Each structure stands twice: as structure tokens, then as C-alpha cells.
Known about the structure:
Blueprint: H1 7-12, E1 17-20, E2 26-29, H2 31-36, H3 52-66, E3 74-80, E4 88-97, E5 100-107, H4 109-123, E6 129-132, E7 137-141, H5 143-148, E8 158-159, H6 160-164, E9 168-169, H7 175-185, E10 187-196, E11 199-210, E12 215-222, H8 224-268, H9 274-300, E13 308-311, H10 312-329, E14 333-339, E15 345-348, H11 350-366, E16 373-380, E17 385-392, H12 399-404, H13 420-430, E18 434-440, E19 444-452
Parallel strand pairs: 14-16
Antiparallel strand pairs: 1-2, 1-5, 3-4, 4-5, 6-7, 6-12, 7-8, 9-10, 10-11, 11-12, 13-15, 16-17, 17-19, 18-19
Helix pairs in contact: 8-9, 10-11, 11-13
Keywords: ATP-binding, Kinase, Nucleotide-binding, Phosphoprotein, Transferase, Two-component regulatory system
Protein name: histidine kinase
InterPro entries: HATPase_C_sf (IPR036890), HATPase_dom (IPR003594), His_kinase_dom (IPR005467), HisK_dim/P_dom (IPR003661), HisK_dim/P_sf (IPR036097), PAS (IPR000014), Sig_transdc_His_kin-like_C (IPR004358)
Amino acid sequence: MLKTLNINRYLESSLFKIVLDEDGDILDMTEAVKLLMPKDFIPHHISEIFDQSLLEQIKKRLLLLKTETIADQNVLIGHLEVPNKKSEPCYIIYQQYSGRAILTIKIGEQSYKLNQLYESAYLKATMPMALVNESGYIISTNDLFLEIFPDQTSSELIHLQDLFYLMVPTSPFTFEEYILKALTQESSTVKMSYTSKGIQRYQDVSLTLDCKTQMFILRIVDITEQERLFEQLAHSDQLCTTGEIAASIAHEVRNPMTTLQGFLQLLEHEVTGNAQMYVKVIQDEVKRMNEILNEMLVLLKPAVDEITIFSLSVLVEEVLILLRPKALLDQIHLVNEFNAKGSLLIQANPNRIKQVFINLLKNAMEAMKANDTLSIMISEGNQQNVDIFISDTGAGMGEEMLETIFLPFVTDKPGGTGLGLPFVKKTVQEHGGSISVTSEIGKGTVFHLSFPLIPVML
């Protein structure tokens, strides 16, 4: 816990501060305030130094002190009036502290206007911010802060340490060291993760000491996108480092696999009973291993394609002919919609593009149940491109899965390799196209593909 600072030490380190009890009696003041007073004059009550308007404002807040209601920090405007001196326009910052009221006096209209400017900049800041008093309590926040922590709007003051309980540090961290660094070095920063509405975000939480007021400014900078980018870069570096090794291993493994497959075919005719069943199981697993190796090689090596111009609608119809038997078996409705005046031609490798559609449609069908609908719509885009929308009414995906769906080896499908969608993305991009996906759990998924359109020569 952050230790409560001694009030005398607090006063010694600040300028123009007065401590009051609930009746407005002056309990203590800084030396700077005493210098504002005439010689041999020591005020005992606020009525002796403030004008009537400011006095009424302070009394209203002292009533809250009597009822033990927590008051937020307030800025009050009025005049400082002391015997034998000219009335000075001033404003005061009113705070409650351990059953006492603390008034910070600011003299002069220019200072007040400057404070208004600072307050406006604070409230309209583009990052979440909060003011923390010397005891560690959050006494003021801007709107962005409340958007992130909507539960912190109660009338009771929240301690900074209680706020930190809602967040998880990404590295070894102690609250005491964090505060000590802010006190000794005037600034302290820690990286935290915070989960809100099921979404994890990363934030740099910095605490800066304001020497004039002895209060802290808390700033929160959202670095989620930066952290996600670092994760992707680290993943890419890892793949690049292991890519060449994986390709070499895949080639080497295929040779003994081919030999194994040949001997299994011979053995299949030599065995009977349970042994024949075991051989069949081994053959199926060897076949699956070969499929995984082939998919890895496609991802790892640059493709040398035979590029041709072909009709996309014709190719999609060929794919649907292959998949209609499975759709009928699974009782899935297949809908093919073509919205264009003429043929939509693209320039690509037809075999690889066909595999792209097979992968996407098979994935969709595996996420669907009986009587669901799988639609593929082809239309001419607005910028010399052809758009393909593959939509299903299946299980859908959450936001976390959507963020990693095109990364290699990421899958939630039992027995899946996690290489199908990376192949899809790689192939689409190599042919000058783009791919995106939207999804909602329980409602389904939509893949949007786009390829450059080849104009038809008349």
C-alpha cells in the first residue's frame, strides 16, 4: 500500500496551502501564505481572508466534510481579502484529506485563465488521464479514462493500487517500486495488459510527479496494435529462421515415406485378419503425413506458375461440381450467385486458384450443420476488379481467432494442420489479389476475395 504522507511534510513542500477543519477554522498554513498576511496578523478562520462569495463556496464543501461525503477536487473563484491590503482576485483548489480540507491558493486572473486552459487540455486529451493525490487516491479523471474503466465512477475515491489490481503487468512488478521511482525520478512507467468485454489490450501506464502540487499525473497509452505487430514480426522471424530447415527436412522425409508406402502396398496383400486392418490404418496415416509435407512445401518454396487467362465463374462452377455430393450428404444448401453482364476473366494459375476455393468451401462446410446455407457470390467491382464473397451460416469465429486465422499452424479443427488458410492467403496475394474475413459466433463467416479483372477485348 502507498503510505499516507505526513500533513506537515506535505505543507512544507508546497506553496500557498491552508488546512481547515469542518468548521472553517484554520489549522495550519504554509510559510508562503503567512507572507501574504500583514505583520503580526495570523488568521484563525477563513472568513478573515476570503470574500463572501468565495466563503460561501467553501462552506458548502465543508458541509460534505461533516457528513463524511467524499468531494472531488474543485476549483473555486473569488477574492483574497486581508487587512490593510488590496483585494486580490484568486482561485483555490479545494481537496479533502483525512477529515480535513486543503485549500491551494492561486492568485491572479492570468493564472486562473492558464489553469482553465490546462484543465481543458486535460479533459480533452487524446489519451486516458487521471490525477492522483499524494495519498495515492484518484481524485479526477478525463472522459477517455472512464471509457476504459467505467466501473470507477462511484462517489468514493479509488486508490491507485486498487486500479492496478484490474490490470496484469507483463513483466516483474511491485507497486512500491513503481511509486518510489515516480517520487525519486519524477516518472515511472509499466506495461500492463487489461481485458475489457472479452478483449485483451496492452497499455503503457505512466505516473509523473508534479513537483509544484506534489500530485501525480497518470497517463495510459494504448499499445495494443504495436504489441500485436511485434508478435507477428516475432512469428515471421521464427518462420523465416526455420523455413529453410523445414523445407530441407520435408524433402528428406518424403524419400523414406515413399519407400514405406510401397512396402505397405505389398504387405497389404500378404496379411489377413486384424493385421490387414492395422496395415490400412498405417496407410491412412502415411497418406496424411504426405499431405502435410506437400502443404508445407507449397508454403515454403516460391511458386513457379503457369499463368493463363480464364473465366472465374467457370472455375467456381467446376469446384462446386466437386463439392455438391458432400453438400448433399451433409444436407447443406449450396447457392451460386453470379452478378455480371459478361465473363469475368482473371490472370492466374487456374489449378492454384481452384485449390483456394476448395480450401475455403471445405472449411466452411466443416463448420456447418444440416440445413445451413453456403453461398458464393461473384460480381464485378468498382475499380476494375472482380469480387468473390463466400458466406456461410455456420458456427462463426471469435475476434481472437480472426486475428490469427492466416498464421501457419493455427487451427481449432481436430486433425487440422493449420496450413490451408496460409496457403490461401499466399496464393491470392501472389496473383495480385486480396482477402479479408468477417465473422460472428453463432451467425457465420464471410470471406471476401478480390482479383484484378482482365478486360474483355471486343
